[in-house]
C-alpha cells in the first residue's frame, strides 16, 4: 500500500486533498504557510506563495509582545481569506481547557467559530485533592 504522504503529497500528485489540521495554542503558522516551506516533507505542500503573508508570518514569529503577535496573525488570517489557498470545510464543536497553575481558561467554540471565554483564578490548594 502506498503511503499518502510519500505517494501523493510529497510528490505533488494530487488535484484535491481532504485533510485535517489542528492549531496549537500559539497559532504560529510559519511551517504550514511560509513560501520557504515547500520542499518534500515540509508542510506547505500546496506551494502557497504570498510575499505579504511571508512578511507577516516572519514578523509574528519574531514579536514577543502577545498583542503584537495577535495583530500579525489577524492580518495573516485576512490574507488567507482573500487568497483562499484552502477551502476550509468544517470546524467542529470543541471545548478547550488550559491550565497554567494560576489561571484556568475555558474556550468554547462552535461550528460558527463563535467564542465564549471564561477565565477565573484558581486556588492551587483546590487542585491538590
List the helices and strands and how they pair.
Elements: H1 4-9, H2 30-33, H3 51-62, H4 66-83, E1 94-99, E2 103-109, E3 115-121, H5 124-127
Antiparallel strand pairs: 1-2, 2-3
Helix pairs in contact: 3-4
CATH topology (fold) name of the largest domain:
Dipeptide-binding Protein, domain 3
Described by strand count, sense and barrel closure, the largest sheet is:
3 strands, antiparallel
Classification by helices and strands: alpha+beta
Q: In CATH, what is the class of the largest domain? A: Alpha Beta
Strand content: 15-25%
CATH superfamily of the largest domain: Dipeptide-binding Protein, Domain 3
Mean pLDDT: 75
The level of helicity is: 25-40%
Number of domains: 2
**Strands across the major sheet, in which order?**
1-2-3
Q: Span from first to last CA?
A: 50 Å
Overall geometry comes to: globular
Strands, count: 3
Regions with pLDDT < 50 over 5+ consecutive residues? 110-129
The run of helices and strands is HHHHEEEH
Radius of gyration, in Å, reads: 18 Å
Going by CATH, the architecture of the largest domain would be: Roll
User: DSSP helix count?
Assistant: 5
